[in-house]
Amino acid sequence: MTTHGLMYRDDVVLITAVVQRGLGDGVVEAAVGAGAHGGTVCYGSGVGYRERLGVLGLALDVEREIVYVLVQRELESVVFTAMAAAEGLDRPGRGILFTTPVERLAAYGHGSAAAEEEA
Hints:
The protein is an alpha+beta fold. It has a single domain (2-118), classed as Alpha-Beta Plaits (2-Layer Sandwich). It is 24% helix and 38% strand. It has helices at residues 24-33, 76-85, 111-118; strands spanning 2-3, 6-9, 12-20, 40-46, 62-72, 95-102, 105-108. Strand 1 and strand 2 form a beta hairpin. Helix 1 (24-33) runs antiparallel to helix 2. Residues 111-119 have low confidence and may be disordered.
């Protein structure tokens, strides 16, 4: 449904990946290759078990990249699997991936998504 240029959707899932610094772009590329329209990469820091093994047991600050990708529910499995296979996320300590249901989404309707809604 579109109203005044805004597109409203309720069939969307947010896929989030928290990965080591430098891996975010590869994860987004994998998502786009699997059918996503794009993604957002933010930078952050985190402390985990491995980082507490620093000098004198002090926690080390480790930089991470957080990748957000919104996809239609029917693409969720394909995009999630592609993101999980990207950048060696199947190896320990490389990152985590999870999904969050999105109840409603409103965005300026452009591109093929807006055309699908109007059809």
